[in-house]
Amino acid sequence: MNRVLLRIMAAALLLVVSGLIGWRVLAPAELSASARTPNPPTPSTELLGVTSRLNVAPLIVDGTVRVYAAKHQVRADGPVTARAVYTARWSFRRWPEQLSAVVASGTTVVTRWSDGKLVAIDARTGKEIWRADGPDAPGYAGHRTGAAAVWNPPGLRTATGTVLVTEGQTLSGYAVSTGQSVWTATVPAGCVEGFTTSGNAYLCATGVYDTTSGAALTGWPAGPYSPVGCGTSGCEAFRDGAGQGWLVTTAEPRRAPALDDPLATIVAGVVITATHAGALLPSSPASPAVTPGPGSSTVVPSPSASAPVSASAPVEPPPSAGASSSSSTPAAGTAPSSPAPAGPLPSAPAGTSPSSYFEAVVGRSVDGAALWTTPGPLRVLGGDSETVLLLTPGNRLKGVDARTGREKYSYRLLFVPDKEDTLKWKPGLFHVTDGFLAIERLNRDAPDDPESPIYYLTLDTVLLVALPD
Predict the structure, then answer these.
(1) Cβ atoms 229, 235 nearer than 8 A
(2) 239 and 317 in contact (C-beta within 8 Å)?
(3) What are φ and ψ of residue 100, in 5° steps?
(4) Which residues of the chain have a pLDDT value below 50?
(5) Residues whose CB falls within 8 Å of the CB of residue 24, separated by 6 or more in sequence, listed in order
(6) Is residue 239 a contact partner of residue 221, using CB atoms and an 8 Å limit?
(7) Cα angle at 265 between 328 and 262, to 5 degrees?
(8) What's the pLDDT tens digit per position in 391-406?
(9) Using a CB cutoff of 8 Å and minimum separation of 24, what contacts does 252-255 make?
(10) How many whole angstroms separate alpha carbon 113 and alpha carbon 149?
(11) Residue 379 is inside which H or E element, if any?
């Protein structure tokens, strides 16, 4: 009898202990760890090339730290050029809430969570700056790398001094410095995933709103709108519902006919377009073009252009047959993939999608005058300051001056000491910011499913590339 009682008491005690452990593990909790060392220094501007191979997608903040997203956590490491992911400088974890989106404004990192909480963190120290209540948010959708949460943050945008939050038919503005709710507007359906402009407007499928007050703006062309040359915040251009291009660097939109081209983006005020076979700018019969040698450039007169056309050096030979390009949706702050032009691309390698690589890249004024052309096959990734970033099918990155077409640099996206076969990948999501390019590497035959075990090229799938001034 005593043995039975002892067993019953032992079982009860075990249940109590298990319950306490379960409560400790599963109960709602927050865990915050601040930085214990000074902020890393700004990296040298002389850096050039692939500096890091990472297993998660970084958001570069203040040019000094890398911020990462996980399902229940946001964390940061540094220095920016560290070859791998380092031990966290700071971290902030919430359980069981999921991290929905992360944005940065200056040195302030704003996180949005599935329960609607907005938590702002100092990127230099990891200390909480403010906390605010917002509408419920979608759960974590960053997959293995967290790229979608930090490069294309759902329902979270930034404007001058303001963080915008969207959910359903509610659009709200919060002060970046304090987290105070400064305005709330009711908007039509379909206004959740819009973008902000450098002229302080928020554009969505069903309207345009002032980011300083939430007031609806009138006199704009009809939507739905698509951002040009940007991701989700601070865009300098857009195309309206009729496909017409507009500049929005000021409060009022200004027509830019060259942006009507569905392949066009904009870098440093220059419209960058792609052309397919037979659309290269012709040379003057009186002044035949000179084939430039490696590393050189030449000016080719054109009767159809009001400005000289600069033809850069020939690109590397395309890779072997079977290469393919990415069909992934581009990340925040990157140039979106464009619809394919009609007809084949003879210069593209077999198996390469014409929606990504084109016969040539052309720089034009906003009125459409041709300035320069660079032969392909090339894909436009976007721009860094005054440089157009171009990618070859062999994964060589080329930096071209946006105003002249002069090639500034060219190198393979290869992390030393990786072997040559690690160049055989297709680009996934990518992000250009603060003098860096971060890009996911996908298997060439990867299915269209980020959860697939063969979707990414390797475990450390993200390359971080330092771009020169």
Answers:
(1) yes
(2) no
(3) -95, -45
(4) 22-23, 25, 277-355
(5) none
(6) no
(7) 75
(8) 999 999 999 999 999 9
(9) 252/199, 252/219, 253/199, 253/220, 253/221
(10) 11
(11) strand 370-384
